[in-house]
Write a structure and sequence with these properties.
With about 850 residues, this protein is of the alpha+beta class. The chain folds into 5 domains: about 170 residues, tricorn interacting facor f3 domain (Immunoglobulin-like), CATH 2.60.40; about 110 residues, 2-Layer Sandwich (Zincin-like); about 130 residues, Neutral Protease Domain 2 (Neutral Protease, domain 2); about 90 residues, Immunoglobulin-like (Sandwich), CATH 2.60.40; about 130 residues, Zincin-like fold. The chain is built from 28 helices and 34 strands. A hairpin with a 3-residue loop joins β8 and β9. α3 packs across α5, α4 packs across α5 and α5 crosses α6. The longest helix has 21 residues. Bound molecules: arginine and zinc ion. The site of arginine (ARG) has 12 residues, from β21 and α2.
Length: about 850
Amino acid sequence: MSVPRDDGFVYLADYTAPAWRIPQVELQFELAAEATEVVSRLQLVPDPAQGGEALVLDGVDLELLAIAVDGVALAADRYRYDGRQLQVPGLDRACVLETRVRIRPAANTRLEGLYRSGRLLLTQCEAEGFRRISFMADRPDVMPRWRIVLRAARTDYPVLLANGNPLGTADLGGGQHEATWENPHPTPAYLFAIAAGPLERVTQTLDTAEGRRVELNIWAEAADVARCAYALGAVERALRWDERRFGRGYDLDVFNVVAAQDFTMGAMENKGLNIFNARYILADEATATDADFLAIESVVAHEYLHNWSGNRVTLRDWFQLSLKEGLTVFRDTEFSSDLHSRALKRIEVVRLLRGRQFAEDAGALAHAVRPDRYREISNFYTLTIYEKGAEIVRVLHTLVGDTAFRAGMDRYFADNDGRAATLEEFLAAHQAASGRDLSQFARWYSQAGTPELRIREHYDAASGDYTLTVDQHTPPTPGQAQKQPLLIPLRFALYGADGAPVTTPPDTGAAQAPGLVELTRARHVLRWTGLTDRPLPAFNQAFAAPVKLDLDYAADDLARLARLERDPFNRWDLLQRLATGALLGTLDAESATSALSDALADLLDDDAADPAFVAECLALPDFDTLAEAVDVVEVESLVARRESLVERLAEDHVERLERRYHALAATARQGLSGAAMSARALRNACLAWLTRLDPQAALAQAQFAAGGMMTERLAALRCLLHFDAPDAAAALQSFRDAFAHDPLVTDKWIGLVATRPHPDSRDAVLALLASPWWKATNPNRVRALLGSFARGNALGFHRRDGGGYRLLAEQILGLDALNPQVAARLLGSFESWRRLAQPQRGAARAALESLQGGLVSPDSRDLLQRLLED
Ligand code: ARG
Ligand code: ZN
């Protein structure tokens, strides 16, 4: 790819093609937890076009035991290995490089490369983990075919899995056995995987639309295998959906998935052998919430769908990361929307965008969806690359329409199958299929920051002239002071005085399709003439463009529009806007509050509305979303205003909340059906509002005591803990004891303790850190305790005395030496520190500065530097 410049950054502009091709790799593992030996045979072919460069391979902290070229051992002066790279000068023709190295899985706390999790041995190679296993041109544009032999003691490692198709097994005598795997598809090293250990499986066979018989397996340790059935069903649904919606089939004889308790990220799409964080596989009604089930389905789909958007067509270099991640998030979101409620999925995504991605785009770590430089690629697995990247694909879909979009995808897959592609090639395929010039659209990839649309209306009653003036603006971000106008598809609808949509298109301002205008310039004016009444405009239906809207509605207009608007997403959004206006003082607080309250009354009275949608309308914008919408964040007052608004609304509707809570009880017992999940969502929303008004928390206590599904138990426990109910401690104790053996459920109560909305919760976090529950080497546990505290507990993390920041900084220091990616993630929770009011801003800076000189990993050092840069 390219080497870092003197400033420590790798630059997109420095890309050069590989000097050596590697058509074939053979690996042989002698697996054991303390020490594993890896023999590698690389077929090397120099690329004459690259001018005979010396052979340089990546290999980090490998113990090199033997090295040979074409079967002849290399003398010590024929190669150099410095612990990072292997150089073999003087090679100028095709040859086979054979190396033997020793690595130490049990000592690997980074969980990158080959590592141990419980009794399993597993790998994680994306982005640059393979170089910790063996020597390789560890870059995504080098795509060999692979043959992998695994050898191990049969009692410790009865199951031996690798990428591709199984070729056979053999007994080696002396308690040893081996398995051979072959991956016939050209595959970069970041998609390499093996898994070994006492795994059991759930399995299913199906025939693909192309007529291939495929075995689907989900593997887990014996105690967990009973909770894999739901994930197996999700694999099948994803496979069928990709056949139907994108015409993409599966291309191996087996699809294996392994669940691991120790895993840094969510999951990994290794070719034919996905490895998952157990939290995105294991589920049953007693231990997983409804939200867990939906997340499992969507992550399983995400990884499965990568088989085309990521594996068959991979990346030329890591700057293209969103080419696979944004596209695959778009695809998994469409999958979930097709299978369940499209509007609810949109609401879920927009909450994540507004609460987290917009904050990232406005903070110290803002970066383009295709960055032009990085110091550490692991720091770019961000909401911007993933979620904003998916939004950009959605913008493209909106611009060209579904038919042309599908044609563009077909063309992209056809033109790039087996290749390492770039975003330009993705756009070229869509440009060819749609006939549209996408050059301005491409700015979405290079320009960081969330665009803002300021819309002002003018109505002249005498002439009937009505204009909407739309100005676009993207604020500066680190390293990008000036922004250019983006191509933004803006959806709109006008509602007349009679409540009916105005169907006349604007006379000027060119709407490209009914209700859609493509903004290309800093200012557009849409003009209608002859309107007999002032209409009410609504914008950005289904959140078709990932932008912020600055509108000057009055509270009454918003409330009226919330009733008229046909788009369900927007009906929700207009209520969010009312709430935000009431909370931030941009609307008259009293009229906004009573308008919101009236709207919620109607929703709660409407038994025909989807209860889950009603629940979403009850859930006001969260702290992060509100904090992102203000210039200076006054933490306590923001939280207090939000609390008092919820309290006022709850008081307004006690009877309604009670009625819905009880009326939905029967439906809520109907297992995992959509109707039952919806019923539980609204019941739990009602429960939270009712509990805040009842010091005895009687309803929550009863729901907790009734046991039942995890969705209900956990929601009740949250109410008891977060509203300081009299029974909270006893409830926590019984929950803790009931699930002490289950790390995933343990993470749930730890998350509740860490997010109790009170400055004192810091002490509970400290107590857990000193308890046997703390496991610094388990990323899920770290996220449950420290991640939830930093990201989900405004009053605890942002304590006025800085105690929350200091706690986090101290933990980051320790974690950095164990698992740099986990430490760097936590450091990211300081991304918006500059917008905090005093005393928090000073305290956050002090906590960050205390880390200077102490951090060892490039990951954390890169983030700290960016956080403190002016
Ligand atoms: N490609 C994985 C996914 O499906 C994530 C891998 C993350 N790896 C990392 N080093 N951050 O999104
Ligand atoms: Zn992904």
